[in-house]
Amino acid sequence: MTCPRIAVDAMGGDYAPDEIVAGAIRAQAELAAEIILVGDPEPIQRYLDEHESGIKLKIVPAADVVEMHEEPLIALRRKPNASINVAMTLVKKGEADAVVSAGHSGAAMAAALLRLGKLPGIDRPAIGAMFPTLLPSKSVLILDVGANVDCKPRYLEQFALMGSIYSQFVLGVEEPKVGLLNIGEEDCKGNDLALQAHSLLRDNPRISFLGNAEGRDVMSGQFDVVVCDGFVGNVLLKFAESLGGVLVQILREELPKGWRGRLGTALLRPNLRNIKQRIDHAEHGGGLLLGVDGICIISHGSAQAPSIFNAIRLAQEAVEHQVSQRIQACYQASSVVGEGD
Amino acid sequence: MTCPRIAVDAMGGDYAPDEIVAGAIRAQAELAAEIILVGDPEPIQRYLDEHESGIKLKIVPAADVVEMHEEPLIALRRKPNASINVAMTLVKKGEADAVVSAGHSGAAMAAALLRLGKLPGIDRPAIGAMFPTLLPSKSVLILDVGANVDCKPRYLEQFALMGSIYSQFVLGVEEPKVGLLNIGEEDCKGNDLALQAHSLLRDNPRISFLGNAEGRDVMSGQFDVVVCDGFVGNVLLKFAESLGGVLVQILREELPKGWRGRLGTALLRPNLRNIKQRIDHAEHGGGLLLGVDGICIISHGSAQAPSIFNAIRLAQEAVEHQVSQRIQACYQASSVVGEGD
């Protein structure tokens, strides 16, 4: 297999282009991937020159950028040369295999839908995000975390199937255990959406459905994939993302100021840093847009070089493990095809 | 004003009756409240005898108890002498001012609705829960956290009004800032429920509406009251409740084992305990059922004596500050009356 080609939106994000380019340089050096930077060549080249890394990166020019305050669909239409449009077009034309962007996430999703389209059998793409769990090396994939605020039961079934494929082939989980985010363990609990989704998930032989996952079960490590509508998922994701900051603030206030505190803190410093990292969801990197005909990683707007590097690695792995092809094959092989809206 | 009389469901909860009675003894000793224990007199009296506290507690006999696996409405009808039924009846007859229960929360809510009824102008009662925030002495009231899985926009408006009254008169917040839990800061963000609730909240002159609260804003301290439907609120509450346990587990794994770790941990022990307490939502006590004609505190099933004591104090404060009367007055004075379902 040839080396995955990753188109990186160099203009999107709070720290663009410098931190994006820095992450791309590291990825080009360390990963078996070909990085294509999409954006204004002048500041990109300047950064490359200033940091004589010896790394050669391909640059595809894109004059415009979708600003955070813009309405995605209008901006994408008004700015055909926006970096996210150009990056998606590279994938569409077969000149790249994946897109990574830390820019306007609504615009990235809209551009993916417009340029790449949905996979056959998928009604709605979903954004998946990894949450940490109690178990040190285990994460759980939550989807959807924001692409679809109102969902139908069969969307959740599709999220479960896409999440299972990702978990199995990219994360190497043999038989991913799927949970339905809900307000009680019992089958009869939940709102209309949850009740109907429950029976779809239970009856689908391709899904290893463990049952309802309550809020307290999300980080328990029991589940590999948890599905929910994009409203609940987004609230939970952003709540979880704020925990690292809350913890640091509380540590700052509660750790003692005198010699006892200074000594104790000094002795434990590397461990406290590890603890923060495990809790701090922001360090876990980007969200994955599943269900479009191509690989798209949507990074956090505040992503800096390490996050961008992680996002590029995610993209590389998703391409290598043929996530889109496997989702497509799964729907072609079965009769589980969307019934239209 | 006479001393608030608090009917405590001695039979409800994982540690009933012993821990419930223990919490009640402390409350009777320390608070200006009259505690009425409702339940099987024999084990209650045995506990009182064994722990010669010198405290006299009134006992009202109730032979039955609603078990956790029972369907609330059926159980309440089949067991008129269940402790939660008897406790609610005491309030209905004017023999008690409030109920505290750590038993089946669905049964407590159903019993409150059946025996006490809703306050005029309120379509749906809500359960409110306090979350910690970044600011040391500040909490935020989230409602609904589980009473109503499917909500209409005007329910959220009522939750905001009830939450504001509670925040102002019981928690002493001068002008409670209200947020609408949502997936973006902008007014145009959200699902149908959030979009419609947004304009109701914005246009209600009795509500100090600050705008949308994203998941990351919940613990920021900007808001005093955050409203949402009971599905999202319950997921968030249970997720938050699991954080204390996750943190302890991570600390156990990440704090070093050798002399450095032992010494560092020993130096910081009291502080680490404080940190856990601030994050551990379970320590913050019970939920408050707002919108029924009486005060009901719904404690966690796993509540032990300290939580029960806190719940009783919450009930006492709510009675003293006339929360129900103020909600009622607010609706009588205005034309904001439910339009029926």
TrEMBL record, chains A, B:
Q: In which pathway does it act?
A: Lipid metabolism; phospholipid metabolism
Q: GO: which molecular function terms?
A: phosphate:acyl-[acyl carrier protein] acyltransferase activity
Example GO biological process? phospholipid biosynthetic process
Q: Which GO terms describe its cellular component?
A: cytoplasm
What is the uppermost EC class here?
Answer: transferase
This enzyme catalyses:
a fatty acyl-[ACP] + phosphate = an acyl phosphate + holo-[ACP]
Where is it localised?
A: Cytoplasm
Q: Name one Pfam family in it.
A: FA_synthesis
Q: Which UniProt keywords apply?
A: Acyltransferase, Cytoplasm, Lipid biosynthesis, Lipid metabolism, Phospholipid biosynthesis, Phospholipid metabolism, Transferase
Instruction: Give the E.C. number(s).
Output: 2.3.1.274
Q: Which residues form a coiled coil?
A: none
Q: Does the keyword Lipid biosynthesis apply?
A: yes
What HAMAP family does the record point to? PlsX
Protein function: Catalyzes the reversible formation of acyl-phosphate (acyl-PO(4)) from acyl-[acyl-carrier-protein] (acyl-ACP). This enzyme utilizes acyl-ACP as fatty acyl donor, but not acyl-CoA.
Instruction: Note the NCBIfam families from the entry.
Output: plsX
How it assembles, according to the record, is:
Homodimer. Probably interacts with PlsY.
Task: Give the UniProt family note.
Answer: Belongs to the PlsX family.
Name under which the protein is recorded = Phosphate acyltransferase
Q: Which organism is it from?
A: Pseudocalidococcus azoricus BACA0444
